[in-house]
């Protein structure tokens, strides 16, 4: 056990830009972080066990042969967050191969694929500034959703790109909403150190995981002017702004 913990820590220190998996010992329905090595979108496709999912590799990243997940008192901590969990508090370390992560991500991407070209699930949400959003009242606008949480490293890495996206479409009929799993207090504290220009919805686990069946983070969805889900993007890559911009441009037409 001690050897595995040291190995996991060294993996993070030596290779910080790897895919992260966040699971609990109990199974596959726990949140998963997807880092910069891959992103999964609806527009580039190849067959993965019969599915239509394309893992789009980023040229600027390195993929590691295995990923370590540290579990403490029932809380899953991604291997990229090993610095936040002391080794002596770990109850177990699960090593996931890339094949296992590929299979898990393909399965979850299939859930997203089922939403494509269908009416987006309805929601009513209130952001940190007290403004209420009802999807039914956003018809005529393109709605871009981002699902994330503070402890998700690739979610935070994605933020500067998403901020650029907001600036890019500031004069267009585009609404940017970020559904966070975190509470208002935690988000306000986080935002004193980080900038995120989306309209941020706190305590959004129900919308994320029940309404939209999101368990992989970060995930983005683009809903067109008629309320139809047009595209999605799971994970982070260095060209995330370009990918989402292409989705938005298509939905604005």
Give a brief rundown of this model.
The protein is of the alpha+beta class and 253 residues long.
How would you describe this structure in keywords?
253 residues; alpha+beta; Glutaredoxin; seven-stranded mixed beta sheet; three-stranded antiparallel beta sheet
**Amount of beta strand:** 25-35%
Q: If helices are DSSP runs of H or I spanning 4 or more residues, what is the number of helices?
A: 6
Shape: globular
| Second-tier CATH architecture of the largest domain | 3-Layer(aba) Sandwich
Structural class: alpha+beta
Biggest sheet descriptor: 7 strands, mixed
Q: Indicate how many domains the architecture comprises.
A: 2
Distance between the termini: 56 Å
* Strand order in the largest sheet: 5-2-16-15-11-12-13
Number of strands: 16
Structure description:
The chain has 253 residues and is α+β, with helices and mostly antiparallel strands. It contains six helices and 16 strands. The protein has helices at 2-14, 98-113, 153-168, 184-190, 205-211, 240-252; strands spanning 32-33, 38-41, 47-48, 51-52, 54-57, 66-72, 75-77, 92-97, 124-126, 132-134, 142-148, 174-180, 199-201, 216-217, 219-223, 229-235. A seven-stranded mixed beta sheet has the order 5-2-16-15-11-12-13, with helices on both faces.
């Amino acid at each position: 056990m001690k050897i595995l913990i040291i190995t996991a820590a060294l993996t993070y220190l030596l290779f910080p830009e790897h895919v992260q998996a966040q699971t609990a010992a109990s199974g596959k329905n726990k949140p998963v972080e997807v880092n910069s090595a891959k992103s999964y979108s609806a527009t580039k496709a190849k067959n993965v066990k019969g599915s239509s999912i394309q893992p789009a590799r980023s040229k600027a990243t390195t993929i590691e042969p295995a990923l370590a997940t540290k579990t403490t008192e029932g809380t899953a901590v991604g291997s990229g967050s090993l610095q936040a969990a002391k080794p002596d508090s770990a109850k177990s370390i699960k090593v996931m191969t890339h094949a296992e992560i590929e299979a898990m991500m393909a399965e979850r991407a299939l859930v997203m694929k089922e939403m494509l070209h269908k009416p987006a699930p309805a929601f009513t949400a209130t952001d940190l500034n007290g403004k209420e959003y009802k999807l039914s009242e956003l018809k005529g606008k393109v709605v871009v959703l981002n699902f994330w949480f503070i402890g998700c490293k690739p979610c935070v890495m994605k933020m500067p790109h998403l901020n650029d996206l907001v600036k890019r479409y500031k004069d267009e009929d585009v609404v940017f909403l970020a559904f966070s799993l975190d509470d208002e207090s935690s988000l306000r504290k986080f935002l004193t150190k980080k900038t995120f220009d989306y309209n941020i919805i706190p305590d959004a686990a129900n919308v994320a995981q029940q309404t939209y069946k999101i368990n992989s983070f970060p995930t983005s969805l683009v809903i067109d002017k008629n309320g139809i889900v047009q595209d999605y993007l799971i994970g982070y890559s260095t060209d995330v702004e370009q990918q989402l911009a292409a989705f938005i441009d298509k939905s604005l037409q």
